[in-house]
Amino acid sequence: MAWIQREIALRPRPRGFHLVTEEVLDALPELRGLEVGLLHVFCRHTSAALTLNENASPDVRVDLRRWFDDHVPEDGPWTHTLEGPDDMPAHVKSSLLGPELTIPVRDGALALGTWQGITLCEHRDHGGSRHLVLTLHGE
């Protein structure tokens, strides 16, 4: 199989942690035909990130937001302030989590754990549409 690469635009979301697994899968119908492979997901932004985390209880996503907001406060001693009080903390949070995930593909599906989902970590109050580059390879 050849490499497949697509960019998808996610709808704007408020600050928080948002499951996007289905949106990623919808963009790659070819994945269902793979026996084995890898999916790389890359977020093209410096104030949003990606993580694999809880896909069932929304309380986990609420608690993650609370933890990050408490530990990386907007009223910190930031130098970079031109884009608003939530911008520099968003950069720090994104650096802590990272912009990418690599997920194994097995038998036409992502080989995720039972409770794992692809989570967009939106760290701005009004971050706008977020773009992900999806790169799939397998056979």
Automatic annotation (TrEMBL):
State the source organism's domain of life: Bacteria
Question: NCBIfam families of this UniProt entry?
Answer: TIGR00149_YjbQ
One Pfam short name: YjbQ
Matching InterPro entries: UPF0047_YjbQ-like, YjbQ-like_sf
Can you say what this protein is called?
Answer: Secondary thiamine-phosphate synthase enzyme YjbQ
Task: Give the family this protein belongs to, as stated in its UniProt record.
Answer: Belongs to the UPF0047 family.
Q: Which organism is it from?
A: Patulibacter brassicae
Coiled-coil segments, which residues?
A: none
Upper classification of the source organism reads: Bacteria, Bacillati, Actinomycetota, Thermoleophilia, Solirubrobacterales
